[in-house]
Amino acid sequence: MTTPAGTALAGRRAFVTGGSRGIGAAVAREGADVAITYAAARDAAEGVAGEIERLGRRALAIAADSRSAEALAAAIDRAAGAFGGIDILVNNAGIFAVGPVDALAIDDFDASLAINLRAPFVAVKAVLPHMGEGGRIIGIGSNLATQAPQPGLAAYAASKAGLAMMNRALARDLGPRGITVNTVHPGSTDTDMNPADGDHAPAQVARTALGRFGRPADVAAAVAYLAGPGATAVTGTSILVDNGANA
């Protein structure tokens, strides 16, 4: 972002998975030098990287499918080599596979776990050789990790609940190294995957306490707080950014 809050991350080196659009792109704009991954949207990812470079920061757009542990680890190694290390890891890439249990394919369930849960674990393992004391690891979860307001959410909710619990456990593993691990749980957020003017948007808005859809920038602000100097004592926790949908 170009707001003053973004200056808190100046000089920090970040790696954001799935940063070509939506929440990932908003996080990438928060002020750090940043590498973002993309699976297919090369033009969009390079556009985000170019925008960041024009603001005087370093940026890389790296093709890496989060289903491939090898590709993801190689992308982290490449970013660390270019930047001289990584201070912030944001596990953002995800898929939203929904459907009733008798209709949802096992492959869809497996893909949810592979991208939403396994890939963040792979990324954490890969980033640790490049991350020192003061490092920050942040997972983008979902308010559906703690509440299932409609049918068909078993695969997605399980993957995001697993991410949040994994991050709590990792906070114990990595606390002695001075690395914090947290999760941000967005609610309904205006992205390509879930637009604020979509058919299902009115029902989602009706569940919120504030009566509105979220913006990617709202989620990015929470990530920037956890990655910034004001959150040195915050680890092993989750922050809901859902306009009170789970209140």
UniProtKB/TrEMBL annotation:
Family: Belongs to the short-chain dehydrogenases/reductases (SDR) family.
Originating organism: Pelagerythrobacter marinus
The UniProt record lists the keyword Nucleotide-binding: no
Keyword Oxidoreductase set for record: yes
Keywords carried by this UniProt record: Oxidoreductase
Signal peptide: none
InterPro entries (alphabetical): NAD(P)-bd_dom_sf, Sc_DH/Rdtase_CS, SDR_fam
Name of this protein: SDR family oxidoreductase
Pfam families, alphabetized: adh_short_C2
